[in-house]
Design brief:
By secondary structure, the chain is an alpha/beta fold. It folds into four domains: 127 residues, P-loop containing nucleotide triphosphate hydrolases (Rossmann fold); 75 residues, Helicase, Ruva Protein, domain 3; 89 residues, Up-down Bundle (Zinc Finger, Delta Prime, domain 3); 77 residues, post-AAA+ oligomerization domain-like (Orthogonal Bundle). A five-stranded parallel sheet has the order 2-3-4-1-5, with helices on both faces. β3, α6 and β4 form a beta-alpha-beta unit. The longest helix has 18 residues.
């Protein structure tokens, strides 16, 4: 039986890895390890289909070490013993241990001395937070790296590679994948490359050739193969951004029913990244200081949604949307930072006052650095009047508080008191 496309397209060396540039890009930690042939055990954690196994196999391919794959939940201690014996004979074995968070104490105790000796280089893979789910004895002997969902651009690269690779991919097939279908496939799989490749292969294998002998893959075919309708995408992709725009404007306008409707369309399309990013933006841009607790609750809801995945993710997402919709609103924070940036970009920066400059080095006092600085905690109420802005901006005011929430009302009163005290 032919292996799945996602399996066949796994990288054989570190240069073939798609995405994860924070780990395998030029001068990054895993590439440095491979180049120097100084590998240490590591734990890779992140969502399914993001390349944990691919990184492990690529490391093995680049270093020419033997590579073995086991599952901590289903493989036995005897399987680990076989790997250990091989390591004694060959010198070093890279062991990818999937679901490492399910490693029991017996297997762990067997592994530890082999990790210490370096005969086995362990690459643990898990979707769970290793700081919570993995035993400290293993965790302390491994570096922990987060593997992130692939960006849409990375998925595009992998899809095109699969379509053109005649040895491992679909290069021998006369496939015409429409631009809209490819865009949709890259977006709807939410950074899961395995799902994207497997859906592509299903589309190719299950679609008959047309009269010209070409396998035409359009968005309707891709929708069927990923089992998610493109409710948020029209044929040129504009509707995706229209729905996101309507989503944010509905929350900003406190229309909870409209906001739930538009988020429902994004949920139906499986677009958790867009929902998460937009919710986080809305929390701090549109609610902000009127209700900081709602911002914190939104962050927690997004984290829960990512942990749960769909369909359960819809529950904390709905809680966050309702919370933000019905919360008091204030855009004072974004207005404040944009006002400050406007001055900076207009060349109104000015020199940092001498009493605020760094004075933590010998000779700083001779340059007048920090000499006249007044330490606020040495004064009543932990405050003393002194200038902080550059001289040319001495009277600039960027933050103007609103009164739509109780918290910001308190901030406004404090701001008024401080400004009056400074003037007097």
């Amino acid at each position: 039986m032919q292996q799945p496309l996602a399996y066949r397209m796994r990288p054989t060396n570190i240069d073939e890895i798609v995405g994860q540039t924070h780990l395998v890009g030029p001068q990054k930690i895993i590439r440095r390890m491979v180049n120097a042939k100084l590998l240490s055990s590591m734990i890779l954690y992140g969502p399914p289909g993001t390349g944990k196994t691919s990184i492990a196999s690529a490391i093995a391919g680049s270093t020419q070490y033997a590579f073995r794959m086991l599952n901590a939940a289903t493989d036995s201690k005897k399987d680990l013993q076989i790997v250990a014996e091989e390591a004694k004979m060959s010198g070093t074995v890279i062991l990818l241990l999937d679901e490492i968070h399910r490693l029991d104490k017996t297997k762990q105790d067997f592994l530890l001395p082999h990790l210490e000796s370096g005969r086995i280089i362990l690459i643990g893979a898990t979707t769970e937070n290793p700081y919570i789910s993995i035993n400290p004895a293993i965790r302390s002997r491994a570096q922990i790296f987060e593997v992130k969902p692939l960006a849409e651009a990375d998925i595009h690269v992998a899809l095109q590679r699969a379509l053109t690779d005649k040895e491992k991919g679909l290069g021998d097939e006369p496939v015409a994948l429409s631009e809209v279908a490819e865009q949709y496939l890259a977006r709807v799989t939410n950074g899961d490359l395995r799902s994207a490749l497997n859906a592509l292969e299903l589309a190719v294998r299950s679609t008959p050739k047309d009269a010209d002998g070409v396998i035409q893959i359009d968005i309707d075919v891709i929708e069927e193969c990923v089992q998610q309708k493109a409710l948020t995408h029209d044929k040129d992709g504009d509707a995706h951004y229209d729905v996101i725009s309507a989503f944010q404007k509905s929350v900003r306008g406190s229309d909870v029913d409209a906001a739930l409707h538009y988020m429902g369309r994004l949920i139906e399309a499986g677009d958790l990244p867009s929902i998460s990013r937009r919710l986080m933006t809305m929390a701090y841009e549109d609610v902000g200081l009127a209700n900081p607790q709602a911002c914190a609750r939104t962050v927690e809801a997004i984290a829960a949604a990512k942990q749960l995945g769909f369909p359960e993710a819809r529950i904390p997402l709905a809680v966050a949307v309702i919370d933000l919709c019905l919360s008091p609103k204030s855009n004072s924070a974004i207005s404040a930072i944009d006002n400050a940036l406007a001055d900076i970009r207009a060349g109104k920066a000015g020199e940092v006052p001498a009493h605020l400059k760094d004075a933590h080095y010998v000779g700083a006092d001779k340059l007048g650095r920090g000499v006249d600085y007044k330490f606020p905690h040495d004064y009543p109420n932990d405050w003393v009047a002194q200038d902080y802005l550059p001289t040319k901006l001495a009277n600039a005011h960027y933050y103007e508080a609103k009164e739509t929430g109780k918290y910001e009302q308190v901030l406004k009163q404090q701001l008024i008191r401080l400004r009056q005290a400074k003037r007097s």
